[in-house]
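Question:
Now give any protein.
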Amino acid sequence: MSQTNGQAPLATIGASGVVLWRRHRGALQVLLVHRAKYDDWSWPKGKLDPGESWIEAAVREVQEETGLRARVGIPLPDASYPLRSGELKHVQYWAGEAIAGDGALENEIDDVAWLPVDKALARLSYTRDSIQLQAIVEAERRFGLATWPFVVVRHAVAVPRVDWDGEDSERPLTPDGVERSRTLVALLDAYSPTRILSSASVRCSATVAPYVEHADIDPIFKNGLSEEGFADDPRKVVKHVARAFARTDPVAFCTHRPVLPSILLQIAGYCTPGGLAGTTLRGLAENGMDKGEALVCHVAGAGDTARVVAVERHRP
């Protein structure tokens, strides 16, 4: 709900979308969609279905409207505006690249156009949509839009130690934890990590199991990401992070609370000093991530010159 200057609160409708971008003959282009019902040009977007996350809705709406599957990149500025119904619409946006799909138009879209920035700005029907375009241009100028995701996942809720008689590494997820592992599929799929590194402990392997099955990839179990392996040699996890930054493959690490500070602080070293991304990572290193949380770090570049340009928290 939204409250303005003592007036009655406005009902808020949540929606999300993706500004797809590509390079065509060396020039940056973005994708606009045309809605026949309104005769307008805007970004692909749509309302959240019941129980759907913002990021899940963004990917689904792009596919439904354009026939293209998006890999989500950096977050873009939100938009909020009143509707004729008197409700307030709030839209979350991300940049993204089309990685699959046949481009067949569906839903209410009757045309799409890949346009260079200047022509896109001229064709957009609403001034408010220019904010996302400006953010795209600025990101391209500062660090380039071709970022890759480093996702850090804390395992979902597991059976408490006091209620488990077996080996600690065999503790299973609770029913809530299992449900979170399932909802992580759509979230991770939006960023499409192609490598999953995980502790072999059941509570970690089970957290990522639904996604690795969905993506048809084999998880890589690392002793350095387990509680026991980390306690024996904390240097291993540092090496795993450094190798991930050298490879630049979209990647996700699934691990435990005691291991997270070392991972997060090392990633923070790739952030611009004093920036929001580094502050967020250091804060989480100190205070902890939620069980089942996925932290997405958007990285530009590789190796020692890589930079984390944005961080997103996806909490259960």
Notes: Residues 238 and 263 are 7 Å apart (CA to CA). Residues 12-142 form a domain with the Nucleoside Triphosphate Pyrophosphohydrolase fold (CATH 3.90.79.10). The chain has nine helices and 13 strands. The chain has two domains: 12-142, 148-314.
